[in-house]
Amino acid sequence: MVAIPPLGIYVPVPTFFVGKQAATYNAIAAPLDIDTQIAHSLYLARAGIKGLVILGSTGEAVHLTNKERFEVLSGVRAAFEAAGFKEYPILAGTATQNIEETVDQLRAAKDAGAQWGMCLAPGYFAGASTQEGIIRWFTAVADQSPIPVLIYHYPGVSNNVKITPSTFVTLARHPNIVGCKLSHGDVSVHAQIASNPDIDHAHFRTFTGLGQQLLPVVAVGGAGAIDGCAGFFPKTVVRLYELSVKTQLTEEEAAERRRLQFKVSSIEELVAKFGTVGIKEAISRLRGFGDKDGTRLPLHGGIPGGDAEWANWKGLADSVQEEEDGL
Known about the structure:
327 residues; 11% strand; alpha/beta; eight-stranded parallel β-barrel
């Protein structure tokens, strides 16, 4: 039987590159920093995160070579095994448009130790693509993939390509397609997939990509979140998920759930505004992993405004840190 990703909170981890002080630093394409990659991954696993998405949008997958992809995946897998996290869930992202290359990356991901692939919807020809074309693309990938795949729908990085709920219903019937990540703010669409009676939700998981809507998405049947904020406030997001799936709450728990969702939604605005750059900046400043501006071109320089801009978020970050410290 094909493996299904567990319910819960996952982190789309950034890919770390060596800092400017390193002897191997290259301003055009800094080399990978596997040690920091491993340290951050273990930190998240120990904080209760259910699994990782490696080489997704946050992981700058489009900036890495296939050789580097394998080094990141295999390095993290080996570290998990050595630390006692046997079979820890790893989803490997793909962002290619070509079916053959996508399948090649999924084969390499399996060899590197990933249990699932998460494939970004092809959006280069979004304006000309039909739903039937998208169904055929994902079907061709899933037919050939050696690991189960999830559909990654992120219109913001894929030319606003549209995937309708009915397309998800069709693709959810494929035995090797086991879920989706929806990185957009339309909760109605989440509901039309996560609550759809024509989908076998024991086989097909619907994850939101936005922690700011975790509670409402879980309420309509969502499986959890693959959330950037959880990369620097993992315990808080996990606690919010635990309270979100709980059906009988005390008054104190209900109040805690509202408070946590408010704080998570608020700090997620940093991610919404600055994307991968904001996530890397927060992980560096708050958790000490990597450089604040440790991205590859054309991403450059960290968040616009630097320290002055970060000061606008510090009070909110301190408030969420209080929750993190209490967990």
